[in-house]
Amino acid sequence: LEPYVNQPISASTLRQYIFFGRQMNNKRLAKSANWVRNELLVRLAHRIRDFQQLPFFVGTNPHIKYIYGLYWAAFEKLRKSPQIKTMEDNQGFCTLLRQLLEEGRRVIPQMALGVSECASYYADDQQDLDRFVNRMFRSRISRRVLTEQHLALTEACENDWDESMGFGDGYIGIIFTRCSARAIVGKARKLLDIQAATKFYSHYHGKLPPPSEWKPPAVEIELQPAAGSSGNSNEIIFAYIPEQLEQILYEILSNSVRFTMANHPPHAYPPVRVTVSVNETDVFFRVSDQGGGIPKTRFDRLWSYQARAPDGEFLHFEDVQKMPSNISERLEQNTTDGPMHLGMGLPLSRVYAEYWGGELQIMTMDGYGTDAYVRIPRLG
């Protein structure tokens, strides 16, 4: 472990991923595979060391120990995997990566349950557990980006997509260089309309199915292009990993729709308004609702896993074995027998937003409604 703990983690930007991913060939793909292998080992080693430095009462918690075991197993599998020299070697490496991705879907539910059982051991003014969890989640995002990007580049290279289309589909690995603000918000809205009808309506209004004339709260989208822009005023285009932004906006919109339905009769929902603006460096999203706002007692601990866990807010994770990989899987989970709300969505969304140098802020008027602000860099 020590040789990898002593290595610094190599931070990378979206711009760097895009630059390297262009004109992929077998030689560059093998180079990518070996770099990804080493980076995963380094990042896992740092997190394993974090586990080893936890207080005894946390480190021996069964859920925390389970994650620790997952990380050690992943580290050993990667350490014992051979250097990638040929495309056959890369195929074997990709098989391992897919296995590790699947196993990693168990981390967040186990972490949530572990935090629920350990938070009471910490003083109210301590933030050690919050810092530990945020480091774990940020590192998890980084490893998934490395893994999924290499898998996507491998698939593109094997199918000669770069040569046949010249990146005509807009994708370089998992990065989409033509992300549409309207399309991403629209996708989240479409999935939430389904969830509102199948899950929220019966929860808040006590009837299922809703009457045929019923409609969920409208999500209105307004785009504000950059000043002086000569492009399409009805569209804002930028490069990003769409699944990450979809997760952020889906979570925010889900909260807005849920609390709008909870605080208004089914025939008189006020709309949820989404405003998108852009400048040379960033894209901004504002989601405004009239869902009743957030009480101060809750708002003060909104971002703290540690403060919220003793109230049992994360215990719904007992019914979740694996986290969904995208919002479509999230919808499927929520509209079947899964819990309607897990409680970690906003803190996780903030980790996603901050990962590429963006931010997520919440402003609320208790008794009226809430505004959520998301800023993402156009090339993180």
Automatic annotation (TrEMBL):
Domain of life: Eukaryota
EC number(s) recorded for this UniProt protein: 2.7.11.-
A GO molecular-function descriptor: ATP binding
Signal peptide limits: none
InterPro entries, sorted: AK/P_DHK_N_sf, BCDHK/PDK_N, BCKD/PDK, HATPase_C_sf, HATPase_dom, His_kinase_dom
Pfam families named among the record's database cross-references: BCDHK_Adom3, HATPase_c
SUPFAM superfamilies from the UniProt entry: alpha-ketoacid dehydrogenase kinase, N-terminal domain (SSF69012), ATPase domain of HSP90 chaperone/DNA topoisomerase II/histidine kinase (SSF55874)
Top-rank EC class of the record's enzyme: transferase
Kinase in keyword set: yes
GO biological process: one example: regulation of glucose metabolic process
Keyword entries, A-Z: ATP-binding, Kinase, Mitochondrion, Nucleotide-binding, Transferase
Domain Histidine kinase intervals: 242-380
Location within or outside the cell: Mitochondrion matrix
One GO term describing the cellular component: mitochondrial matrix
Primary localization class, coarse: mitochondrion
Entry's family note: Belongs to the PDK/BCKDK protein kinase family.
Protein name per the record: Protein-serine/threonine kinase
Organism for this UniProt entry: Phycomyces blakesleeanus (strain ATCC 8743b / DSM 1359 / FGSC 10004 / NBRC 33097 / NRRL 1555)
